[in-house]
Amino acid sequence: MKMSVKKLAVSAMLVALAVSLSSFAIPIGASKCFPIQHLANVVAGVFLGPGYGVAMAFCTSLIRNLMGTGSLLAFPGSMIGALICGLAYRYSGKLMLAYAGEVFGTGIVGGILCYPVATMVMGKEAAIFAYVMPFLMSTLCGTVIAAFLIGVLCKSGAFKYMKHLLDTDIQPSKAVGK
């Protein structure tokens, strides 16, 4: 993967946003939804691609764990969601498939992958599907917010402009410094 300074900077801003707003929660029934990580996953998957999305999700989870504001369960959920979202958008170019990728990746696959992390690493007793519903509710909230934000960007023309800025690498001229 070729590194892009622009994409790296946007990834870092998304990490900062997700970490700083990780205490924002929406109560839904007996559960709390933390939608900002999923919003960041969708934005990263669509604008930056799967590699940067996974790296952003990993860094966010790592920092939150180091700060004591997250758990080890954040790793499989967020990283799988960002990966599937980014791959779905890269290969289809369709926003709806990117949104579905985030929900499926985090809610279903990530929720199931939390089982071995919870039981083997964290020593918790849980059913294999115990994390699917809470993860689904959280990712649905974040994905809806992201879809609204991206919809506004599309209608204003900013989506196309931002994609163009992030997808083009401006090469320095050979004449610079001569």
Topology:
Elements: H1 5-20, E1 26-28, E2 31-33, H2 36-47, H3 50-67, H4 74-92, H5 95-121, H6 132-156, H7 158-167
Antiparallel strand pairs: 1-2
Helix pairs in contact: 1-2, 1-3, 2-3, 2-4, 2-5, 2-6, 3-4, 4-5, 5-6
Pfam families: ThiW
Signal peptide: 1-25
Transmembrane segments: 41-63, 70-91, 97-118, 130-153
Q: So how many helices?
A: 7
Strand line-up in the sheet with most strands: 1-2
Global outline: globular
Task: Give the CATH architecture.
Answer: Orthogonal Bundle
Q: Which spans have pLDDT < 50 for at least 5 consecutive residues?
A: 171-178
Q: What is the N-to-C order of secondary-structure elements (H for helix, E for strand)?
A: HEEHHHHHH
Average pLDDT, rounded to a whole number, is: 88
Q: Main sheet, how many strands, which sense, barrel?
A: 2 strands, antiparallel
Strand tally: 2
Tell me the distance between the termini.
Answer: 31 Å
Structural class: mainly alpha
Instruction: Give the CATH class.
Output: Mainly Alpha
